Amino acid sequence: MTPAASRGLRPDQADPHGCLWICSARLVGQIGCGRFAARLEAVQHALNAAFAEAIARAQAKGLITPDHDPLALAVFIQAYTMGRVLGDLDSEPVDPAAWNALIGDVLDAVVRPRR
């Protein structure tokens, strides 16, 4: 069953929230659950490590500035992704083009190597 169908929406109706929003809401609701929290921590740790490793390799190749800690950048990338979800929850959501322009500018300023 699709997320839209689980909320009673027909296939021809727009899903007002989307999968990322639904998964995030479920995640937030489960954080206090001990067993879930332990599993989530393990998965998040592995994800952070994988992102940080990829960032460190890109830094070593000169593709990303070495000015910032790879783990900090890994968490930052995930944080702005979740920030997009929060923005979509507002009754007046942020314009996607404005969000993408902002993130592009921030990434250019923070990770682009200085030449």
Explain this structure.
With about 120 residues, this protein is mainly alpha-helical. The protein has one domain. About 70% of the residues lie in helices and about 0% in strands. It has five helices and no strands.
How would you classify the helix and strand content by structural class?
Answer: mainly alpha
Helix content: 55-70%
The arrangement of helices and strands along the chain is HHHHH
Flag low-confidence runs: 1-7, 9-14
Portion of residues in beta strands equals under 5%
The description of the largest β-sheet is:
none
The number of helices is 5
Principal-axis shape: flat
Notable traits:
disordered N terminus; 0% strand; mainly alpha; 115 residues; 5 helices
Task: Give a quick summary of the entry.
This protein has 115 residues and is mainly alpha-helical. Helices cover 70% and strands 0% of the residues.
Give the SSE map.
Blueprint: H1 3-6, H2 18-30, H3 34-60, H4 70-89, H5 96-111
Helix pairs in contact: 3-4
